[in-house]
Design a protein that fits this description.
Blueprint (H helix, E strand, L loop, with lengths): L2 E5 L3 H12 L3 E5 L11 E4 L2 E4 L9 H9 L10 E3 L2 E6 L5 E5 L2 H12 L3 H23 L6 H5 L1 H9 L9 H8 L3 H8 L19 H8 L2 E3 L4 H13 L3 E3 L4 E7 L2 E7 L2 E4 L2 E4 L3 H6 L9 H5 L5 E9 L9 E4 L4 H11 L8 E4 L14 E9 L7 H20 L7 E7 L1 H8 L31 E3 L10 H14 L3
Parallel strand pairs: 1-2, 1-13, 2-9, 6-15, 13-19
Antiparallel strand pairs: 3-4, 5-8, 6-7, 10-11, 11-12, 14-17, 14-18, 15-16, 16-17
Bound molecules: flavin-adenine dinucleotide (FAD).
């Protein structure tokens, strides 16, 4: 059978290995780390378990699809539940909101607490569904770089709807038109951060995202986010994929315009097909250094990054749920700091993810595992040690004010992830979470294609190529890529 080599075991690399194995390829996967999953991994600190990166799980059927494709029952490998409350929101003035997944209940909550007409919520989510239904078939399930994507009937339908898809206004402008209460504008603006963008610049088309969380649902894997990695890793090994851990690929071998293999630890390995899952910017700087560079693409601004404190907290907080947001009082200024000044605002919006609320063995009894995250600029060489110390103080003060407690005295263990360590652990350029930012309307068109236009037999998957970052899109990149490959 034909042999395929995959570089990187991020979630898209694993999904690609499954799809290629099912197409009959003998798949060899080379991973620099000693573990699979890239950003989607876990850490353990003295009895506390934390999902290291992603915490929000949407579109679970994309994971299920891989098991089904292999003729397996997804439930034998991977289980998840739908959340009743997608997220809890806290403000400094004491306002608290629960985003129930039941839209009518959420609309009622918003009407009671903020006086926002329930109709506005229903209308916003209807528009969100409309964007999704118009764009998903065109942009998410197909390659943007092949002519038939642009000439099929579905594309024509999307062109006709262009005006209604929010391409010509920003997310913030659209949300200000949609909602009367500023807290709701803020809540819906937050969805821009789901792909590391700025709601004051990104096109309103990104209002596609609430549809995923409300209309389709937010989910939690019963064994934690890391189980997405582990269950798919298990399936791929069962299909015969060979993983080579601790093997950092040094070079893609190209002969006569055709990818022929890779160099690892000075040794050449040959294959009929090559798939790169490594971040594209760093790939062109390292393993593709000698090849033609897509300059325009490499220059694109990157998405934001994150600063995370993994805190073991020796107390229970019944008022906290799986996903909790503590909003900044000045959202516009916060994003100005992240995207214009390259710094961290002193009143940051805090995201607290606590998996022990749903998976009790993630923390000792009576304790909680707090994944405490703020959005920060990507790494441009700032003085991170200083910025992290300041951010920690500001985060603690804010949580103390809103939760009326002294958080610092409750912290038993601490781990930290910042833009520098995100880059060193996963090769993500500047530690960006989602590849290029979507802060301008052409961003979607400027992602790298799922294949190389200059090197034959070289394909791409992962968060820095089409259709984009985040678990669902990474899984789709593997699907789009594998559909281009002839077995
Ligand atoms: P990556 O995870 O980027 O992995 C690439 C792999 O390639 C790594 O394992 C790396 O070691 C390996 N590699 C690189 N270079 C080489 C080489 N030369 N040789 C061998 N191996 C190499 N998404 C969501 O859907 N929901 C969320 O809530 C969410 N939150 C996030 C929070 C954080 C803090 C982070 C960091 C990301 C978050 N994301 C979220 C985004 C999501 O994690 C990513 O989009 C996705 O996991 C990227 O997968 P990938 O396949 O592109 O590979």
């Amino acid at each position: 059978s034909k042999k395929a080599i995959i570089i990187g075991s991020g979630i898209a690399g694993i999904a690609s290995s499954i799809r290629l194995a099912l197409k009959g390829f003998q798949v060899e996967l080379f991973e620099a780390n000693s573990y699979p999953g890239g950003k989607l991994s876990e850490i353990e600190i003295e009895g506390y378990r934390f999902d290291a990166g992603p915490s929000l799980f949407t579109l679970p059927e994309q994971v299920d699809e891989l098991f089904r494709l292999a003729g397996k029952n997804p439930k034998d490998y991977f289980e998840y539940e739908k959340l009743d409350v997608a997220c809890q929101y806290f403000w400094e003035d004491g306002t608290r909101l629960k985003a129930y997944s039941d839209i009518n209940r959420f609309a009622e909550e918003v009407q009671t607490k903020l006086g926002e007409p329930a109709q506005n919520i229903r209308e916003a989510l209807r528009k969100s569904a409309f964007i999704y239904d118009s764009l998903a078939p065109l942009f998410m399930n197909r390659s943007l770089h092949q002519l038939d994507t642009w000439t099929n009937p579905q594309a024509l339908k999307s062109y006709l709807r262009m005006g209604k898809l929010g391409i010509f206004s920003t997310m913030n402008e659209a949300n200000r038109k949609q909602f009367s209460h500023p807290k709701l504008v803020q809540l819906f603006n937050r969805y821009a951060t789901y792909n590391g963008s700025n709601p004051y610049e990104t096109p309103a088309t990104l209002n596609i995202i609430p549809h995923l969380e409300f209309n389709i649902g937010a989910f939690f894997p019963k064994k934690g986010m890391h189980d997405i990695t582990m269950s798919l890793y298990k399936l791929s090994t069962e299909l015969g994929v060979n993983y080579h851990f601790g093997q950092k690929v040094e070079k893609v071998l190209v002969e006569n315009g055709e990818a022929s293999g890779i160099r690892v630890k000075g040794k050449d390995q040959f294959a009929d097909l090559l798939v790169n899952n490594m971040d594209m910017v760093n790939a062109y700087k390292t393993i593709l250094k000698e090849e033609k560079q897509p300059k325009l693409l490499l220059k694109q601004p990157k998405s934001s990054s994150a600063l995370i404190f993994y805190w073991g907290i020796k107390r229970d907080f019944p008022e906290l749920d799986l996903h909790n947001i503590f909003f900044s009082d000045n959202y516009a200024l916060e994003f100005e700091h992240i995207f214009k000044k390259g710094t961290i605002y002193d009143d940051p919006t805090i995201y607290l993810n606590i998996t022990s609320t749903h998976k009790s063995d993630d923390a000792p009894e009576g304790c909680m595992n707090w994944f405490t995250m703020i959005n920060v600029p990507n790494n441009q060489g700032q003085d991170w040690d200083k910025m992290i110390a300041e951010a920690k103080r500001n985060i603690l003060h804010k949580l103390n004010r809103i939760l009326k407690t002294d958080v610092e005295s409750l912290i038993e263990v601490e781990g930290i992830l910042d833009p520098r360590t995100i880059e060193s652990k996963t090769s993500s350029a500047q530690g960006a979470l989602y590849g290029n930012s979507s802060n301008n309307k052409f961003a979607a068109f400027l992602r790298h294609a799922n294949y190389s236009s200059s090197i034959k037999n070289l394909y791409f998957c992962g968060g820095s190529v089409h259709p984009g970052g985040g678990i669902p899109l990474c899984l789709l990149s593997a699907k789009i890529m594998s559909e281009m490959v002839e077995s």
